Structures are given as C-alpha cells and as structure tokens.
TrEMBL record:
Membrane-crossing segments per the record: 12-34, 75-99, 106-124, 158-179, 200-225, 260-281
Free-text function comment from the UniProt entry: Part of the ABC transporter complex UgpBAEC involved in sn-glycerol-3-phosphate (G3P) import. Probably responsible for the translocation of the substrate across the membrane.
Domain ABC transmembrane type-1: 71-281
Organism: Agrobacterium deltaense NCPPB 1641
Protein name (Swiss-Prot/TrEMBL): sn-glycerol-3-phosphate transport system permease protein UgpE
C-alpha cells in the first residue's frame, strides 16, 4: 500500500488541476471566441470572457457551411453506422463464443488482427470495391473467359458512407469479452427449456449485455461522427457532405477577413451532438467497459 504524505497529495492535486485545465482549455477558447466579434477574437491578448455575439456568429456559420444539411447527413451516417456496428458485432461475437466450431478462434483472430491495420492501408482497397462493386466478380468470371459489363457503385449515397464502416473488430472484441463471462450452465439451461439460438440470444444475452451495447453505441457514434477521410473520398455531391467536410468552408480565406469567431461558432455547433450523446450515455459507457473486463 502506498503511504500518503502531504507532499504527495499536493503533487497529485497539482497534476489533476493541470490536466483539467489542459483538457478544458480548448473548450474555453472555443466558447469564448464563438461569442466575440471579429475585432475581439483577433485582439491580443485574447479575452477569455464570453461576449454576446454567439447567435450572430452561429447564423453566419450555419449559412456559410450549409450546416443544416451537413448535420442531417452526419446524423444519418452516424446513426446507421452505430446501429450496424452494434448489431453485427453482437452477432459475430455470439457465433464465436457459443457455436463450438473448431475454427472459431481462427475467425476471431482474423477479425481482431484488423485492428493492427491502419486506415491508410485499408482505405484504398475499400474505396476500390465501393467505387465498382462488380469488379471482383468480373475479374473472377474473366478467368473463365466470361465478360460482363455490369457496373454499380456506392459513391454519393448513404450506403457508401455507412456500409464500408459497419464491420468492427473493436465491437466484436468488446462483446466477446462479455459473452465469455456468461456461465455455460445458462446456455445449457436455455437449451433444456427448448430455447433455440435466436431465442437465447434475444431473450437472455441482449438484456444482459445492455450496458455493453450502450457503451459501444457511445464509442461508435463518436467514431462515425468524426469521420473525415472516408466521406471525403465517397462524396462529390454537395448534398451528401458531412459536418467534417463542411469545416473547410468555415476556415477564413487566405486573403479574407480572419473571422475566427464564425469558425469557432460553427465548430461548437458541430461538436454539440456527440457531446450530448456522451453526456447522456456516460454512466452506461463506464459500466459497459468495466463489465467487459471481468
């Protein structure tokens, strides 16, 4: 046991306070700058006290970046990706843990090893498939001398924004760790009562894994909301732009007025939805992560 001393306590609190200000500092700058005029936000030294120009700046940012449409697109994308990831990872982990296949460990490690592949490695082949879904089939048929001209892509569509992002090794691992804590006797009792795999999954496992599900929902919603590279590749139609793509329109032009107050107001609007999701699901998020480690 570590012995507590006044000096150690003082150092601990000093580190905690410093860490708090390092974390909260950027938010203070954003909130203060978003409520100031262009003259105030560019003044030196910077005034950290909020002013009364937020709604004016927010309106300018809303119109400049078309944030209404971008927020809708990001909400649709984040919601669909989250639902898909939570459902697919639950099904995958259920099959790995409760179906006694001799290859189940191979399947799990095949999925898990994808965590070691950075996005930059996966994005090119994923985009190649999304841009031409029938290309792999044409290549296979070409080996047999069969030529087809079928073409279909997922560009400029919600399917293209969401489907390639649904597969998740993180969610599968989180569910697997929790499912492994379920006693085998529970599955045996359900089998003796005549419950099939689907009923056991829906009636027993899903209620027990509610906290894990909400924790994964929090992680995946924030992950999908913050996506920039993938929407940038998939979208050329302005009507499908997400909020992360719209951030570019909020940056001041090189030869224009440095209206960082408008940029900060738009940024505050953009980060508000994931902040609300995290604040609402924070309790279940912590519980889910703790229970998955038991």
């Amino acid at each position: 046991m570590i012995q507590r001393t006044p000096y150690a306590d003082a150092l601990t609190y000093a580190i905690m306070v410093a860490g708090f200000f390092l974390l909260i500092g950027p938010f203070i700058v954003v909130i203060s700058g978003a409520s100031q005029s262009v003259q105030q936000v560019n003044s030196v030294p910077f005034n950290f006290m909020p002013q009364g120009e937020f709604f004016t700046n927010a309106q300018a940012a809303w119109q400049r970046a078309n944030l209404g449409n971008a927020l809708l697109n990001s909400m649709i994308m984040a919601t669909l990706v989250t639902i898909g990831k939570v459902a697919l990872s639950a099904f995958t982990a259920f099959a790995i843990v409760f179906f006694r296949s001799p290859l189940r460990h191979l399947f799990f490690w095949t999925v898990f090893i994808t965590l070691m592949l950075p996005l930059e490695v996966r994005v090119v082949p994923t985009y190649s498939v999304a841009a031409d879904l029938f290309q792999p089939f044409r290549s296979i048929l070409g080996l047999f001398g069969i030529e087809v001209t079928l073409e279909w892509n997922l560009l400029n569509s919600y399917a293209g924004l969401t489907l390639p992002l649904i597969a998740t090794a993180t969610g599968t691992f989180l569910y697997r760790q929790f499912f492994m804590t379920i006693p085998d006797e529970l599955a045996e009792a359900a089998r003796m009562d005549g419950s099939g795999a689907a009923r056991f999954f829906v009636d027993m496992l899903l209620p027990l894994s509610r906290t894990n599900m909400l924790a994964l929902t929090t992680i995946m919603f924030v992950y999908a909301w913050n996506q920039y590279l993938w929407p940038l590749l998939m979208v050329t139609d302005p009507s499908y732009k997400t909020v992360m793509m719209s951030l570019r329109a909020l940056l001041p032009a090189d030869d224009g007025t440095p209206d960082w107050n408008v940029t900060l107001a738009g940024s505050l609007i953009i980060i508000l939805p994931p902040l609300l999701v995290v604040a609402f699901l924070q309790r279940w998020f912590v519980r889910g992560l703790v229970s998955s480690d038991k």
